[in-house]
Specification:
The protein is an alpha+beta fold. 31% of the residues lie in helices and 29% in strands. Strands 2-3-1-4 form a four-stranded antiparallel beta sheet. It holds the Pfam family YCII.
Length: 111
């Protein structure tokens, strides 16, 4: 398995916001299957960072092609790179979504 970092740049917020619920359901299914380590939007909502755990780049590109965002043409891939972390992913790097009461919940416009 290999870790890949994908940086997205959002291009059409109106269409993106319409399809976002399906996109998030898709990401949740990938996370449950162990294919997506974590994901989230930049604070300024101009794009997002996703970390995938997949066999190879070909599998990653298949997963990206199946993302509901892809046929809607709401993002560009700013960067896609295989990544080798220096430290193991741990509780400090948890991918659990913040609770709304924590004050760290994503904004309504976030990914």
């Amino acid at each position: 398995m290999a870790l890949f970092i994908v940086q997205l740049r959002f291009t059409d917020n109106e269409r993106r916001l319409r399809v976002r619920p399906k996109h998030r359901e898709y990401l949740a299914s990938l996370h449950a299957a162990g294919k997506l380590v974590t994901a989230g939007p930049w604070v300024d909502d101009t794009g997002a960072l996703l970390i995938y755990n997949v066999a190879d780049e070909a599998e990653l590109r298949r997963l990206l092609a199946d993302d509901p965002y892809t046929p809607e043409d709401v993002y560009e891939i700013a960067e896609l790179r295989e990544w080798r972390p220096l430290f193991p992913l741990s509780a400090a790097g948890t991918s659990s979504p913040p609770s709304p009461s924590s004050g760290n919940a994503p904004s309504p416009a976030g990914q």
